[in-house]
Amino acid sequence: MAYKKPFYVKMMTDAFQQWSDLERRAGVTLFKNTGYLVFGKDTEEYIISNLESLRLNGIPHQTFSGLEANQRYPRQLKIPSTHKCIYEEMGGILYASRSLLAFQQEFVKLGGTILDNHQVTEIIPGDRVTVVTNRGSFKANNVVIAAGPWAPALCSSIGVDLPFKVKRVESIYWKVDNADAYSSDIFPTTFGIAHGDTFYSIPVDEYPNMVKISSAGGIWTDANNRDTESGPVTVPAVADFISSTFRGVACKPSIIDYCMYTASPDYDPVIDRHPKHKNIVIAAGFTGHGFKLSPVVGKLVAELISKDTPSHDLHPFRVSRFTTPQSSL
């Protein structure tokens, strides 16, 4: 778990159970437990705060030096011997496409209807909210805006200006000399800090003979014009990180994919009702760490719609952090 604020720890505990329940209902594997290794200088703020949060929240973990990490993974790692390493056994890989399909199938089983390729052009508040798309209009007692990079524009159109920005990030895959050494059966996901940047890696799993190693960096963009931007910008930094950290990984990328996330100023999302129109709920601005929480977010949104008491503290996610008048949960 990359974020260890107390409310995220509680939400992730809930999410693990819900992911497990969804796996059981769908009959497919959605999560692979590989372990999660974080490393960097022991003076790095992230290392210090991460370790403190793990201890305060009673999350099982191990700490050891970079030298010991290299001894544990002699075919994969060559990180600086003096680095501090934190290992969590519960980390792993969440299969996004498979998980999305499982969500959709369960939604349909429960009576839902999925309308693909409907571009929302307008939302008209009222006792019944009207959603206008390029293929027709729909009315509903309640509407949830969970539109990712397109959420800021939709929210602005109904009077809520959120200070969110959209970042285009690069998912980069690199060939390895020994796929067995980097198999997800024996090598964990990692998160490293170097030269003021952060990098994550996922072992060989998605593509044969390739690991995914990427930076959290990217470029600010517009959701509708992502693919008109310039080419990749993080490859040199990631290649340098690979050269100093991993063994047997090519320093020339094989595949580069692009994706987007919506960044909030405090790295926390909005999960709240519209300040004026209480039958409109907003769930946006997850800054790249929303998907793993998605079962919990869905539950919270449903509780807001049904006016049930939220099962988690929603005060950190209020609209009123950024706008007035005050939002009421």
UniProtKB/TrEMBL annotation:
Residues 7-304 form the FAD dependent oxidoreductase domain. It comes from the Eukaryota. Pfam families: DAO. Belongs to the MSOX/MTOX family. GO terms for biological process: L-lysine catabolic process to acetyl-CoA via L-pipecolate. It comes from Geodia barretti. InterPro entries: FAD-dep_OxRdtase, FAD/NAD-bd_sf, MTOX. The keyword Flavoprotein applies. Its cofactor is FAD. GO terms for cellular component: peroxisome. GO terms for molecular function: flavin adenine dinucleotide binding; L-pipecolate oxidase activity; sarcosine oxidase activity. This is Peroxisomal sarcosine oxidase. Keywords: FAD, Flavoprotein, Oxidoreductase.
